[in-house]
Amino acid sequence: MRILITGTTGYIAKRLALQLLEDKHELICCVRDMNRIPDEIEEHPLCSFIKVDFLKPEHAKIPEDIDAAYYLIHSMATDADDFEDLERQCALNFKNLVEVTNCKQVIYLSGIVNDDSLSKHLKSRLQVEETLKSNTYGLTTFRAGIIVGSGSASFEIIRDIVEKLPIMVTPKWLNTKTQPLGIRDVLTYLTGALGKKALYNKSYDIFGPEVLTYKEMLLQFAEVRGLKRYIYTLPVLTPKLSSYWLYFVTSTSFQLAQALVDSMKVEVIGKPSDINTHIAIEPMSYKTAVELAFQRIEQNSVISSWKDAVSSGRFKDQLSKHIELPQYGCFKDVRSRKIKDEEFTLNKIWSIGGRNGWYSFNGLWKLRGYVDKLFGGVGLRRGRTHDTYLEAGDPLDFWRVLFADKNEKRLLLFAEMKLPGEAWLEFKIVNDKLFQRAVFRPKGVWGRLYWYMVLPFHAFVFKGMIKALVEPK
């Protein structure tokens, strides 16, 4: 089949694309930024890419000869006031573009909605489902609750909490019930529905075999990790305080923390249906999903992460707009060193950050991360998706990868920390010399004051970093 995929760089779509290619389907992948095409599928002979922004569809061209499409556009991390209107408009534009093609089926992944007091995001999911309904194609909607897999937001947040806090004093919403579902089962539903006419114009709740509270999920996660944890819930923690608790304890952004707390107050129990007679599957238990996720992590083969989405940081536009270093109105710290072993230096550059640290004065980097968290930034807890591999769009502590090409011997990062301006960090090898450039474009007087405040630290932090990159110990 010839299939259109939206949200190509997202957590679900990236994994789904690999599965569909394995099943020999031909894919047309929609991306907003052609610089963010995932390396895993970029060169695949059955995969092509088109630039589409479904909020600005004027110049979008969807091929007519598609058989099916997946609608996987959503961001819980956005802080836009008109979030619901943007979601609805995006779905409407997608529908208008797809209705003039030969598409017979649209498959949409939504959230379970079975409570009168739905969160803002679940209301939006339901609104999108209504918007996508059409007389020209069949809509198949799968409604999932908590999705468990390596790199998923729920998995990484629970991991942060369990592995860092032996004793937890938590909000009362930890007693809310839910039905977690493994990411592998989600992909089985999404791929298994292709072309099944019996599933056209129908919606199904998909869920795992257990009804668990969030507290039980934390404790079972701890069991899998061989950890003893104690949890005490307090009724006095308000949604606002709960959001701050989640934000400071985990790697999530404050916007996502607010959205999660809003959603976690709502019980998410799936409605039984006959879906498992149409798609042969026995969903795995929560513990099995956690164990499989850690197998991926231990093999360093995490395909996608919720942090890959640019909305998990402070980006509001395309990466390509920042890919050239500015020349005017900027402060710069430029250093160069003769390299002794190019392969060693490239590998060190591509391994920077995350668990590997920044090679020089890591305590100061951590302190900067804590300060960023205090001011509502992303901090250092996001780490990196892979220990030794980078591609455009990847998160890297409080940076975002703009450009990463080992053949061109260049890595360019853009700061997503809270700053009175914009900052870039570039590593580039030219003629056996490593150039390390830190560029800061200040915003107003505060931006200039900030640069002069941190300038003394640059003298030894950046000097130590470039030295570590070129001198094997």
Determine the structural class based on helices, strands and strand pairing.
alpha/beta
**Share of helical residues:** 25-40%
Roughly how many Å is the radius of gyration? 23 Å
- Low-pLDDT stretches are none
Which strand order do you get reading across the main beta sheet?
Answer: 3-2-1-4-5-6-11
Biggest sheet layout: 7 strands, parallel
How many individual β-strands?
19
Mean pLDDT level: 84
Overall shape: it is globular
Structure characterization notes:
It is a single chain. Helix 1 (11-22) crosses helix 6 (183-192), helix 5 (153-164) crosses helix 7 and helix 7 crosses helix 11 (286-298). The strands form five sheets. The protein has a seven-stranded parallel sheet with strand order 3-2-1-4-5-6-11, sandwiched between helices. Strands 14-19-18-17-16-15 form a six-stranded antiparallel sheet. The model has no long low-confidence stretch (mean pLDDT 84). It is an alpha/beta fold and 473 residues long. The chain starts with a strand and ends with a helix. The longest helix is centred in the last third of the chain and has 27 residues, at 444-470. It has 14 helices and 19 strands.
Task: Please summarize what this structure is.
The chain is built from 14 helices and 19 strands. Strands 3-2-1-4-5-6-11 form a seven-stranded parallel beta sheet, with helices on both faces. The protein has a six-stranded antiparallel beta sheet with strand order 14-19-18-17-16-15. A two-stranded parallel ribbon has the order 7-10.
